[in-house]
Amino acid sequence: MKEYFENTKGTAVLATSDSQGNVDAAIYARPHVIDEQTIAFIMNDHLSYKNLCSNPKAAYLFMEEGPGYNGKRLYLTKIKESDDQQLIESMRKRKTTHACEDADTKKFLVYLKVDKIRPLIGD
Predict the structure, then answer these.
(1) pLDDT value at position 96?
(2) Model confidence over 78-121: pLDDT tens digits?
(3) Number of folded domains in the chain?
(4) pLDDT tens digits along 25-55
(5) H/E element holding 33?
(6) Where would a tag sit more exposed on the chain, N or C end, judged by fewer CB atoms within 10 A?
(7) Using CA of residue 98, residue 77, residue 116, residue 91, what is the dihedral sign?
């Protein structure tokens, strides 16, 4: 999984919902692969993060660049988080801030257990 996400370009969506079942979907970066069972995302204090605080379940859809519909769907459960800003900064792959990022927003490193992996289409 680590090699896949380090070497495969594409577009990803993280789907979360709050404790009431209100769903959100957001474009997301590739995950940090901790091990074959665990991934992590650096998250701002926005809706996806807040949803994971009230409902630990999420789905991550990754569509590979190129022709066809190739990619992966990951079914996830939040297991822990860290607000250690030094750790978070050391894990950041890109050091630039995108227009959608607020440099002053507190960031969290959110760890998720990979419950299931399915192909993008079918199974």
Answers:
(1) 45
(2) 999 999 999 999 988 755 444 455 566 789 999 999 999 999 99
(3) 1
(4) 999 999 999 999 999 999 999 999 999 999 9
(5) strand 32-35
(6) C
(7) positive
Burial of 41: CB neighbours in 10 Å, binned 0-12, 13-18, 19+: buried
CATH of the domain at 47: 2.30.110.10
The tally of CA atoms less than 13 A away on the side-chain side of residue 76 is 28
Backbone dihedral region for residue 31 (phi beyond 0: left; psi -120 to 50: alpha; all else: beta): beta
Residue 46: partners with Cβ closer than 8 Å, 6 or more residues away: 26, 105
Could you tell me if 75 and 116 are in contact, meaning their C-beta atoms sit under 8 angstroms apart? yes
Tokens of 17: 């919902």
* Pairing assessment for the beta strands 23-28 and 32-35 based on DSSP bridges: unpaired
Write out the two tokens for 54.
């009230």
Range of the domain at 90: 2-119
How far is the C-alpha of 104 from the C-alpha of 27, rounded, in Å? Answer: 20
**pLDDT score of 36:** 93
pTM score over 0.85: yes
